[in-house]
Amino acid sequence: MQAIVVNSSIRLEPVKFSHSFQIFQAIDSNRKFLEPWLPFVQQTRSQEDTEAFICSILAEKEKRRDDIYTIWYQGRFAGLIGLKETDYVNQKTEVGYWLTENMTGKGIVTNSLKVLIQFLFSTLKMNRIQIKCGVGNHHSSAIPKRLGFTFEGIERQGERHRDQFIDLEVYSLLMNDLRIF
Residue 103 and residue 73: Cα distance in Å, rounded? Predict the structure, then answer.
């Protein structure tokens, strides 16, 4: 995994153990904003929880299923973006992302995804990229719509949040959809 320069303001860096403080501080200070849509926020109560997450990602590097990048905007930590359950045999992956509240509305995820999509299709030879967003998370679902992803439908009760399940909107982009870019 290598760092990806998105533009002069945005850089994606592979997650490192040394990022645990910034990641935890961002989660902890943005709980109210992140918790409705991200189930891990409730379980992330200390920096040690974040360290354990990062260690699990780094330990799984050999399998290359989850590649997580920190997002840096003008040198400041902004959030995470990553690949989830990458399937190299079937050439598909899912992308997830989150930003701190003060970093939203700047085009950070949209611009990061544009570059990441090119990397996934050209370098990793993916054929399908999928994004799932909680139903009602309009800010998140606007991103795949803006980038020309196809809405495929609703994954009913696709993710557990606290003591309930929420439905997820499923979007995809295929290699032969690239004419959009």
Answer: 8
CB 66 within 8 A of CB 84: yes
* Number of compact structural domains in the chain: 1
Whether the Cβ atoms of residue 173 and residue 150 lie closer than 8 Å to each other: yes
Structure tokens belonging to residue 64: 């290359």
Tell me the per-residue pLDDT of 41-77, one tens digit each, with 9 for 90 and over.
888 888 888 888 888 777 766 566 678 999 999 999 9
Q: Which of 118, 142, 138 is nearest to 129 (CA)?
A: 118
Burial of 156 (0-12, 13-18, 19+ CB in 10 A): exposed
Q: Which amino acid is at 115?
A: V
pTM: 0.89
Encode pLDDT of 90-136 as tens digits: 999 999 999 999 999 999 999 999 999 999 999 999 999 999 999 99
3-state secondary structure of 115: helix
Query: Token digits for 178?
Result: 């690239």
Q: Which is nearest to 53 in space by CA: 33, 68, 64?
A: 68
Predicted pLDDT of residue 36: 87
Nearest to 158 by CA among 135, 125, 141: 135
CATH code of 148's domain:
3.40.630.30
Domain boundaries, position 113: 4-180
Count CB atoms within 10 A of the CB of residue 133: 21
